[in-house]
From TrEMBL:
<dbReference type="InterPro" id="IPR014782">
    <property type="entry name" value="Peptidase_M1_dom"/>
</dbReference>
<dbReference type="InterPro" id="IPR027268">
    <property type="entry name" value="Peptidase_M4/M1_CTD_sf"/>
</dbReference>
<keyword id="KW-0378">Hydrolase</keyword>
<dbReference type="GO" id="GO:0016020">
    <property type="term" value="C:membrane"/>
</dbReference>
<feature type="domain" description="Peptidase M1 membrane alanine aminopeptidase">
    <location>
        <begin position="235"/>
        <end position="433"/>
    </location>
</feature>
<dbReference type="GO" id="GO:0005615">
    <property type="term" value="C:extracellular space"/>
</dbReference>
<feature type="domain" description="Aminopeptidase N-like N-terminal">
    <location>
        <begin position="13"/>
        <end position="188"/>
    </location>
</feature>
<dbReference type="InterPro" id="IPR001930">
    <property type="entry name" value="Peptidase_M1"/>
</dbReference>
<keyword id="KW-0862">Zinc</keyword>
<keyword id="KW-0482">Metalloprotease</keyword>
<keyword id="KW-0645">Protease</keyword>
<keyword id="KW-0479">Metal-binding</keyword>
<dbReference type="GO" id="GO:0016285">
    <property type="term" value="F:alanyl aminopeptidase activity"/>
</dbReference>
<dbReference type="GO" id="GO:0008270">
    <property type="term" value="F:zinc ion binding"/>
</dbReference>
<dbReference type="InterPro" id="IPR050344">
    <property type="entry name" value="Peptidase_M1_aminopeptidases"/>
</dbReference>
<dbReference type="InterPro" id="IPR045357">
    <property type="entry name" value="Aminopeptidase_N-like_N"/>
</dbReference>
<dbReference type="InterPro" id="IPR042097">
    <property type="entry name" value="Aminopeptidase_N-like_N_sf"/>
</dbReference>
Length: 618
């Protein structure tokens, strides 16, 4: 792990900030606790941008330091041995008119009803408001304290619980003391200050134990907030059910309204920031999405940004699960299909694997969020967790949560947990779906014929998956064979392309539905069959020899003139040879087709785009 290869480990952040709330400057004092991970640590660096350092101390001793290229470099007066810890105190300030990056300040005006200051730093902007080792894998194990002093008309919210607030009547300043004693990544540390009103809900864990859910909103939005946030306790109860994710992992939860705000929501640990529009207009999916991050993103944090899909794919699937719980299975499937199409549309413009996305695509909604959520959905399917009640997939999630609670995890950690719980080898699944790009694009051909009292159904499944994708996705597929009154659901293992499968049925199938329960992220074209032709029907066809090597004789008969196209298709559905096209007279017609120009393999004879018969060139 990178944490063990770094020269030191951050254990704790203590921040004291004095905000004038008239412009974006502030004065600050920080105490950071570090532990040496090397035999001798005499210098170390912290990420530090858009800020001005004033002095650095260790106890009462002034230390030598320098800044530049986004770092604060500190020389210790006495080196630390491996495992030794020390506290370093840093005094610094932020200048007026500093660009809004991780710390943002906006003055009242227009739709900004009150002066507001807040932090929002994902992925790597915590360094713009306090000195830090700004990597997600280095959680401060002992948590964070944030003490903020503001004019007395303003309130402050932050991570954890409000321990106390003091008032200075001479300066008319109030100081808010927030403490959070859980491991936390830098990008999840936050505070916000504005003219906030508050109200609370309670999540009842047991008859004698409740958890506060507290909201900070502008007073003008109070009535809207009561309506928009009314279902948060229901979401909390849903996610924290012992059959789903398990108990909420922190000491409280809250949401704070932010405006102007570039995002919809941000899952700061125990204090989610949400766009004011969510307060006024509501966003049940967004609120559920951010709440679920408290488990997947905050309790278990992605090890680095190469694994961001673990955060966002989980949360996107979570809000779909909640909305399905509220509105029914069809609503859930419609939402999943909507997000599938968003991914398909984005994939047309750029394609990349979920793992280690390009830096400018870290928050690509179609890939990281939508496809990421489909990975969870397909894992459920592969593991056989397809019933109404949560099963093995969710058990694996809880084991994953328990195994990496308050720590970080990567994609391989997640794969190993699922393999351990399910007993499956998921290496191929993760290689194809996470480490490679794209999705399966299936062409499905089927035909039927009577054999005694049974019907023989032959299904051929080909894949044309495009660049950067595996040539074959090996996820098993389901087909539903429908007759007039009977149906049969079958699962087909996929080993190659084309994949040939034969079923024998006691009823005549009239239709084949591919992935009828919507478990796979895919596109598919099903070519319906025309077969079982016999004397007396409007059309009959025969081919010989089959397989063939040099030439193929095709004989067909029409009982009446017809406008048709008879052609040969490859397994990907591409037309490779037109045999006859136009108005064909009644009677018997014979064509001799040479195999020259065609590569050996499987082909299909088609009439007006419908599959007639498989032919094999050898």
């Amino acid at each position: 792990m990178a944490e063990s290869s770094h020269t030191y480990d951050v254990r704790f952040y203590h921040l004291e900030i004095e905000l004038p709330m008239t412009e974006g400057s502030y004065n600050a004092k920080e105490i950071i606790t570090i532990k040496s991970e090397v035999p001798t640590l005499d210098t170390f660096s912290l990420h530090f941008s858009d800020l001005v350092a004033d002095s650095v101390k260790r106890g009462d001793t002034n230390l030598l330091w320098s800044t530049g290229n986004g770092y604060l470099r500190i020389e210790l007066n006495r080196a630390l041995g491996r495992g030794e810890s020390t506290d370093i105190t840093i005094f610094y300030h932020r200048l007026p008119n500093t660009p809004n990056n991780g710390f943002l300040f906006y003055s009242r005006g227009g739709n900004t009803l009150h002066n507001i200051a807040y932090t929002c730093t994902e992925p790597s902007d915590a360094r713009t408001w306090f000195a830090s080792w700004d990597e997600p894998w280095d959680k401060a194990e002992r948590g964070v304290e944030i003490f903020v002093t503001v004019p007395d008309s303003f309130r402050v919210c932050a991570n954890g619980k409000l321990d106390s607030a003091t008032y200075d009547p001479v300066r008319r300043r109030r100081t808010y003391f927030w403490r959070h004693n859980y491991p936390i990544a830098t990008y999840l540390i936050c505070f916000a200050s504005s003219v906030y009103a508050t109200f609370s809900h309670w999540h009842h864990i047991t008859p004698n134990e409740s958890l506060e859910i507290k909201y900070y909103i502008w007073p003008e939005d109070s009535s809207s907030a009561v309506n928009s946030f009314r279902n948060t306790p229901l979401m909390m109860a849903f996610f924290s059910d012992t059959s789903l994710y398990g108990p909420y992992p922190f000491e409280k939860y809250g949401m704070v309204s932010l405006y102007p705000f570039a995002w919809g929501g941000m899952e700061h640990q125990t204090m989610t920031g949400v766009h004011r529009n969510w307060v006024i207009q509501g966003s049940e999916s967004g609120i559920a999405h951010e709440l679920s991050h408290q488990w997947w993103g905050d309790m278990v944090t992605c090890f680095n940004w190469a694994n961001i899909w673990l955060n966002e794919g989980f949360a996107t699937y979570s809000d779909a699960l909640y909305l399905g719980y509220r509105n029914g299975r069809n609503y859930f499937l419609n939402l999943m299909n909507t997000r599938k199409n968003i991914y398909f549309q984005e994939d047309l413009s750029y394609r990349f694997p979920l793992y280690d996305p390009p830096p400018n695509q870290l928050f690509a909604y179609g890939h990281i969020y939508c496809k990421g959520s489909w990975i969870q959905h397909m894992l459920r399917y592969v593991e056989g967790d397809t019933g109404e009640n949560p099963g093995i997939f969710f058990r694996a999630l809880r084991v994953y949560g328990d195994s990496f609670k308050y720590r970080t995890a990567n994609t391989e950690d997640y794969r190993r947990i699922h393999e351990m719980v399910s007993g499956l080898n998921l290496e191929t699944f993760f290689r194809e779906w996470v480490y490679m790009a794209g999705y399966p694009n299936y062409s499905v051909y089927w035909t039927k014929s009577r054999e005694g009292d049974s019907f023989r159904v032959e299904i051929s499944i080909s894949q044309n998956n495009g660049n950067l994708a595996p040539p074959v996705f090996h996820i098993p597929v389901q087909v539903l064979l429908l007759g007039t009154t009977d149906t049969l659901l079958r699962t087909i293992p996929i080993d190659t392309s084309p994949q040939q499968t034969v079923f024998y049925l006691s009823f005549e199938p009239n239709q084949v539905r591919f992935d009828p329960q919507n478990w796979i992220l895919h596109k598919a074209t099903v070519y319906s069959a025309i077969s079982d032709f016999s004397e007396g029907k409007a059309f009959s066809v025969a081919v010989s020899p089959n397989p063939f090597s040099r030439s193929l004789r095709i004989t067909f008969s029409l009982s009446a003139p017809q406008d048709l196209e008879l052609a040969i298709f490859d397994p990907l559905g591409r037309k490779v040879l037109v045999i006859e096209k136009g108005l064909i007279s009644a009677g018997r017609h014979i064509y001799q087709i040479a195999g020259r120009g065609l590569k050996p393999g499987v082909y299909f004879l088609g009439l007006n785009g419908k599959y007639l018969q498989k032919i094999l060139l050898i």
